[in-house]
Write a sequence for this structure.
């Protein structure tokens, strides 16, 4: 393995995700928060951007984000992974089992192991035997719940508190972390001041909202979530700044070229799927740690949602994280005390945001899709003013609708890895 | 003919053997006797009434398989049949209970509603694909969950039967004129006896007709030819004058339309239902994906796969009291599916390689060249 090529030679992602136009991102985030802040003031609902809401959002975003990462590494290394959902299910059952036997940290390890088993099984079909990737993923999704149910019936039935649909519960908590000074965490037994909490309580336009976001992300965050967030940086570093990452992406972009330079495409695709399954399984473990036990159907479509965040994020870690954050927020508000009111306020925020985007595009004279944006804005305004009691089911579909709209508007600008989903064998062009 | 059957069943037989071995290992690990388990399973399906129950279970599964097979035939993966059928069943169940028509019109009316709703929901994905170039797998997954959420919302807020209790959310029960009578008389005519309470649901003839229609459409029509051609090679189809956009639109609509019928056996022929509600089965679409893969997209194959699937379900049900986990059925089904998918692919690649080698041999014989070294021939495997 002595060949040296610069990472910039592969594919069209010439820049590392770290070198993105930071100013633009800061501007967009500020604008988004200003929209939320406006909606908070008009709808008179402080919970829209409170630290509590953002804290729950982070909690619900973590498994979705991990599923997105699972999709990211799989597809970057050339395998379309429809089976994330199934691998997450494998993660939940292993996490429930090991969490009950050995404790919360082993639950995390168990989840990773279970998901990895699923990933390697799928890679056996797709990489070694060349089975169509969609077909293999569908098969994994059908198999995993069966395996989980069988294991649950063997492990948990007859145990105090356990049943075929639920594990007896984890042995202990994984512990949590609160940032000192910013959010009032302890430092060697000394209670530091809670600066963000104070700012949040002021209720000032934009300031209180950012304080709520900051406090939410740094208050009582469980260690598994901390790990999940840091994995995003880890994966970005792995894929764009290491030799292994270069080879992984090579296997997804140009397998024949990779092969001609001595990279084993099959090994890389196995490695990619092992990572993918591990991330998905860890996502399952995060769910188990949240509920403190394995429950049947705990995953409930989050694997597919993760796939959606990855597409929404254009096969990039930062975009995937943003997607997971948005979807996590949409799911998280259903867990707050007055989800109906929050959804109404969120509808208003969406309407303002869409309208602002449409005007911005009109100002820039790029008229493609402006009509759609305005139409959606009007629908959202109408829904805000007419809805008395928004239904939970409608909140449930929001992430999928958002992805569908994003994909419809931006499909031409999305760029999946060039040769993902195509079985590859030595000697193929 | 015999050789064809033998070659077609080689891979499924191998897969079945693999499934039985894997399940036996799973049973051994969990401390059960596999031989005893399989003996008990055989006992529980060895009766007329069991066969009837298996057929009843298999019919909706089979429709679900056919629905996605239509798309699979041209490499169009309609992953969202689950949302399509739930929406269609809900609307058809509601509409069927709202109108009063003579039976000869009522039954086709329910069919029509289900077909239109299922087809239209799938058509959204087709339109997004044709106009905005959105990948069908992605859009059907999204529409799947939107459909599931929307049907739950509509049941709760719009189509709920207000008069019938406040606790259970369900549509009104369908009137007599929309129901299909059971087929017990026909089975009894052939000399089989029924246990009381068991009946062969009346949807079976429609399912068979669906299979025939699917076969004829696929193998005896111009559209079917174009569909299969598009599946084998999109480029070849295009240069032969097939309009790919039109193919996507029609195929996805048909797929969704058939998916819309998945719930009809429950609405029209199952006395436990005759309505859409909380108890309605919710995962039939996902299972259908596996059955289409098992049955290799052929109507007979899917029917066989659905029968096997339902048989395993029935066979493992009474295992619980004997101390054997009934969930072993799920392991059997899953390992059967995965081994079959792999076995099909291996067989296909070997056949392709053999065909390529034969073609190369023929060309060489024409040119009377010496055979090349073995390395280049093996490249295709």
């Amino acid at each position: 393995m002595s060949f040296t090529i610069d990472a910039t030679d592969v594919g069209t992602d010439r820049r590392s995700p770290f070198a993105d136009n930071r100013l633009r991102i800061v501007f967009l985030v500020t604008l988004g928060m200003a929209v939320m802040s406006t909606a908070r003031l008009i709808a008179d609902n402080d919970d829209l951007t409170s630290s509590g809401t953002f804290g729950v959002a982070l909690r619900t975003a973590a498994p979705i984000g991990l599923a997105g990462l699972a999709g990211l590494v799989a597809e970057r290394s050339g395998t379309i992974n429809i089976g994330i959902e199934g691998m997450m299910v494998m993660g939940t059952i292993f996490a429930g089992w090991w969490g009950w036997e050995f404790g919360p940290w082993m639950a995390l390890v168990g989840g990773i192991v279970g998901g990895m088993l699923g990933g390697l099984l799928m890679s056996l079909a797709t990489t070694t035997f060349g089975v169509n990737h969609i077909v293999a993923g569908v098969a994994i999704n059908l198999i995993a719940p069966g395996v989980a149910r069988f294991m649950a019936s063997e492990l948990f039935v007859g145990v105090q508190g356990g049943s075929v649909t639920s594990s007896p519960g984890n042995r202990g908590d994984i512990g949590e972390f609160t940032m000192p000074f910013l959010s009032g965490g302890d430092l060697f037994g000394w209670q530091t001041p809670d600066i963000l909490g104070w700012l949040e309580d002021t209720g000032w336009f934009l300031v209180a909202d950012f304080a709520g976001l900051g406090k939410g992300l740094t208050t009582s965050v469980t260690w598994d979530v901390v790990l999940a967030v840091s994995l995003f940086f880890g994966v970005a570093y792995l894929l764009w700044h290491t030799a292994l990452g270069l080879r992984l992406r090579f296997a997804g972009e140009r397998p024949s070229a990779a092969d001609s330079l001595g990279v084993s495409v099959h090994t890389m695709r196995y490695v990619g799927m092992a990572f993918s399954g591990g991330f998905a399984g860890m996502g399952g473990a995060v769910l188990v740690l949240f509920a403190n036990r394995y429950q049947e159907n705990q995953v409930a479509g989050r694997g597919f949602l993760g796939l959606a965040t990855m597409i929404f994020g254009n096969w990039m870690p930062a975009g995937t994280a943003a997607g997971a954050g948005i979807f996590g927020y949409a799911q998280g508000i259903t867990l707050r005390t007055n989800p109906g009111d929050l959804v109404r306020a969120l509808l208003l925020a969406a309407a303002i945001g869409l309208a602002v985007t449409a005007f911005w595009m009109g100002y820039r004279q790029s008229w493609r899709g402006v009509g759609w944006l305005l139409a959606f804005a009007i629908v959202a305004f109408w829904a805000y003013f007419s809805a008395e009691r928004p239904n939970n089911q409608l909140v449930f579909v929001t992430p999928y609708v958002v992805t569908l709209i994003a994909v419809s508007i931006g499909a031409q600008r999305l760029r999946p890895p060039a040769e993902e989903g195509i079985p590859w064998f030595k000697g193929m062009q | 003919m015999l050789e064809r059957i033998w070659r077609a069943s080689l891979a499924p037989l191998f897969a079945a053997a693999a499934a039985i071995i894997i399940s036996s290992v799973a049973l051994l690990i969990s401390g059960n006797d596999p031989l005893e388990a399989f003996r008990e399973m055989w006992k529980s399906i060895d009766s007329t009434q069991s066969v009837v129950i298996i057929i009843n279970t298999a019919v909706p599964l089979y429709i679900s398989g056919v629905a996605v097979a239509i798309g699979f035939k041209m490499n169009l993966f309609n992953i969202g049949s689950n949302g399509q059928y739930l929406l269609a069943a809900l609307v058809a169940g509601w509409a069927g209970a709202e109108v009063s028509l003579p039976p000869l019109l009522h039954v086709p009316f329910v069919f029509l509603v289900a077909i239109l709703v299922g087809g239209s929901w799938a058509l959204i994905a087709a339109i997004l694909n044709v106009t905005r170039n959105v990948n069908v797998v992605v859009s059907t997954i999204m529409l799947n969950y939107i459909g599931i959420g929307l049907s739950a919302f509509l049941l709760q807020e719009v189509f709920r039967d207000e008069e019938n209790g406040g606790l259970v959310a369900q549509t009104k029960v369908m009137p007599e004129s929309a129901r299909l009578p059971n087929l017990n008389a026909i089975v009894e005519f052939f000399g089989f006896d029924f246990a009381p309470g068991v009946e062969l649901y009346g949807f079976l003839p429609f399912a068979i007709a669906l299979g025939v229609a699917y076969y004829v459409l696929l193998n005896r029509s111009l559209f079917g030819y174009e569909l299969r051609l598009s599946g084998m090679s999109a480029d070849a189809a295009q240069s032969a004058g097939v309009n790919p956009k039109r193919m996507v639109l029609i195929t996805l609509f048909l797929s969704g339309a058939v998916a819309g019928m998945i719930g009809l056996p429950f609405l029209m022929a199952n006395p436990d239902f005759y309505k859409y509600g909380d108890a309605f089965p919710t995962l039939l679409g996902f299972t259908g994906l596996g059955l289409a893969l098992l049955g290799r997209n052929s109507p007979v194959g899917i029917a066989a796969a659905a029968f096997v699937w339902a048989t395993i379900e029935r066979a493992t049900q009474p295992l619980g009291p004997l101390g054997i986990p009934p969930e072993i059925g799920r392991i059997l089904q899953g390992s059967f599916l995965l081994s079959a998918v792999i076995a099909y692919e291996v067989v296909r690649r070997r056949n392709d390689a053999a065909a390529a080698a034969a073609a190369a041999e023929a060309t060489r014989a024409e040119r009377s060249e010496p055979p090349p070294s073995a390395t280049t021939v093996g490249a295709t495997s």
Summary: Residues 376-381 of chain B have pLDDT under 50 and may be disordered. The two ends of chain B are 27 Å apart (CA to CA). The first helix of chain B runs from residue 2 to 29. Chain B is about 70% helix and 0% strand.
